[in-house]
């Protein structure tokens, strides 16, 4: 037993002596190969051949024309939304100043100076004061002063309302027609898909994916243009309705003040 045990120890020592010089070389070989293996593994990025850029590059004149129309409609609607929102904000601020300070002034002239130059309320006040001060002439003398001033003030109010509604027709048109423009692009893309299938003789995915992708992009763009236009139109209509209540109230109060000035002096 002692001989066998000593024999096993000698065998183990011999194997260890043989393996020990080889281990550093194996370690160096593994370290050298690791970077090369990791360098070969890289993340591949696949470009989308059916995106918006591909649609513009590969599309025909009808597809490009549809895209241009949708872009123009979108730019026009956003421009009107921004401009009319700013004008509405300015008019609302003028309404607060006019209703709180104009009729508390010492005279109509002092109240007029407190209104914004070129604003809607100043325009109504100037129109009413001018019509009250200049009620003469062969034709206007046939109309009593109350009716004459009331007509002029109401006409000024209607003019302000008409100016506030400028551009809303464009938003209504864009909101109602943009989905149909996108639908036209969809139909055109499906037509190209069917044409490609007929020419190829088989419905392979590479023949169908491109035109159908164009169709879906057109539909999405039509909805993306129409939804903001409709929402902006509804918001501006509601906003203008609230402001016009203040404008009409100012016109009615101004008419009453002018009729109180029996001599027609302001």
Q: Enumerate the spans where pLDDT stays under 50 for 5 or more consecutive residues.
A: 1-20, 29-44
Number of helices: 9
What order do the helices and strands follow?
HHHHHHHHH
Our measurement of the CA-to-CA distance between the termini, rounded to an integer number of angstroms, reads 135 Å
Mean pLDDT: 76
Q: Rg from C-alpha positions?
A: 40 Å
Number of domains: 1
**Spatial shape:** rod-shaped
Descriptive terms for the model:
mainly alpha; 266 residues
In short:
This protein is mostly helical. The protein has helices spanning 2-19, 22-40, 52-58, 61-101, 108-113, 120-133, 145-164, 168-200, 205-260.
How would you describe what is shown here?
It is a single chain. The radius of gyration is 40 Å and the shape is rod-shaped. It starts with a helix and ends in a 6-residue tail after the last helix. It is an all-alpha fold. The protein has one domain. 80% of the residues lie in helices and 0% in strands. The chain contains 9 helices and no strands.
Q: Topology of this protein?
A:
Layout: H1 2-19, H2 22-40, H3 52-58, H4 61-101, H5 108-113, H6 120-133, H7 145-164, H8 168-200, H9 205-260
Helix pairs in contact: 4-8, 4-9, 6-7, 6-9, 7-9, 8-9
């Amino acid at each position: 037993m002692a001989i066998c045990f000593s024999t096993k120890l000698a065998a183990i020592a011999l194997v260890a002596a043989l393996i020990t010089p080889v281990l550093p070389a194996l370690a160096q070989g593994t370290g050298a190969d690791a970077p090369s293996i990791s360098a070969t593994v890289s993340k591949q990025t696949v470009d989308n051949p059916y995106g918006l850029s591909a649609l513009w590059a590969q599309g025909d004149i009808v597809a490009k024309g549809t895209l241009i129309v949708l872009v123009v409609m979108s730019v026009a609607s956003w421009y009107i939304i921004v401009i009319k929102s700013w004008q509405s904000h300015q008019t609302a601020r003028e309404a607060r100043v006019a209703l709180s300070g104009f009729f508390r002034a010492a005279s109509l002239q002092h109240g007029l100076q407190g209104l914004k130059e070129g604003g809607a309320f100043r325009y109504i006040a100037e129109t009413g004061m001018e019509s009250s001060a200049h009620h003469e002439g062969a034709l206007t003398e046939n109309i009593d002063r109350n009716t004459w001033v009331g007509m002029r003030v109401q006409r000024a109010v209607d003019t302000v309302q008409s100016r506030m509604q400028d551009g809303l027709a464009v938003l209504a048109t864009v909101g109602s027609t943009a989905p149909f423009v996108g639908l036209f692009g969809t139909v055109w893309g499906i037509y190209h898909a069917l044409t490609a299938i007929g020419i190829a003789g088989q419905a392979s995915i590479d023949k169908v994916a491109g035109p159908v992708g164009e169709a879906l992009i057109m539909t999405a763009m039509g909805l993306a243009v129409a939804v903001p236009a409709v929402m902006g139109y509804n918001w501006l209509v509601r906003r203008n309705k609230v402001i016009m209540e203040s404008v009409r109230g100012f016109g009615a109060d101004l008419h009453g003040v002018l009729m109180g000035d029996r001599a027609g002096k302001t």
